[in-house]
Amino acid sequence: MDSPARQLLTLPVGTRVVVRYRIDDGLTDALGELVQIDERTCTVRTRRQGDVVVPLELVTAAKPVPPPPPRRPRRF
What we know:
By secondary structure, the chain is mainly beta. The longest helix is centred in the first third of the chain and has 6 residues. The chain is globular, with a radius of gyration of 13 Å.
């Protein structure tokens, strides 16, 4: 079975993804558009944090996800 990092390498840039990766005190996720991928890192453009560069050696899970739901109209 392929590792999550290897699976990421098969996805085209522009795919919306969620990437779970290790940090000092646990795990965290990056959800957004895959804007760069190479043999060592991937970059995910998130809404809240901007571009997040993730070393592939820290990836524990990754998958493509559907587009976000449309934003709801503002209520006054």
